[in-house]
Amino acid sequence: MQTSMRVTAENRDTLARIAATELGGVSLDEALRVVLFERQSRAALARLATDPDVADSYLTETTHLAEIDVAVDE
After folding, report:
1. CB-based contacts of 67: which residues, under 8 Å, 6+ apart?
2. Relative to the CA of 55, which of 7, 33, 42, 74 has its CA 20 to 30 Å away?
3. Residues of 43-61 as b/e, b for ≥16 C-beta within 10 angstroms?
4. What pLDDT, in 10s, does the model give residues 4-56?
5. Distance CA 19, CA 53 (A)
6. How far is the C-alpha of 30 from the C-alpha of 32, rounded, in Å?
7. Is residue 74 part of a domain?
8. CA gap 16, 66 in Å, rounded
9. 74 in helix, strand or coil?
10. Separation CA 38–CA 15 (nearest Å)
């Protein structure tokens, strides 16, 4: 489904530069998806930082997951 939206030329060009130089030449749509994901991730981390108990639990779980040794059969 093709939709349109209004974007200033300056913002379009900035997004195009990000797409070309930082994201390896992806489409503007994909670049926007990445930028929005990064923003959502930063917001989630900021919320996490406001609750030390949840942050500690998250760090404990991610440390545990990072230490799991997964064998892969070839």
Report:
1. none
2. 33
3. eeeeeeeeeeeeeeeeeee
4. 889 999 999 999 999 999 999 999 999 999 999 999 999 998 988 899 998 89
5. 38
6. 5
7. no
8. 35
9. coil
10. 14
Q: Which domain holds residue 36?
A: 9-67
Rounded CA gap, 47 and 54, in Å? 10
> Structurally, how many domains does the chain consist of?
1
Task: Answer yes or no: is pLDDT of 74 > 70.
Answer: no
Amino acid at 8: T
Phi-psi region of 40 (alpha: psi -120 to 50; beta: other; left: phi over 0): alpha
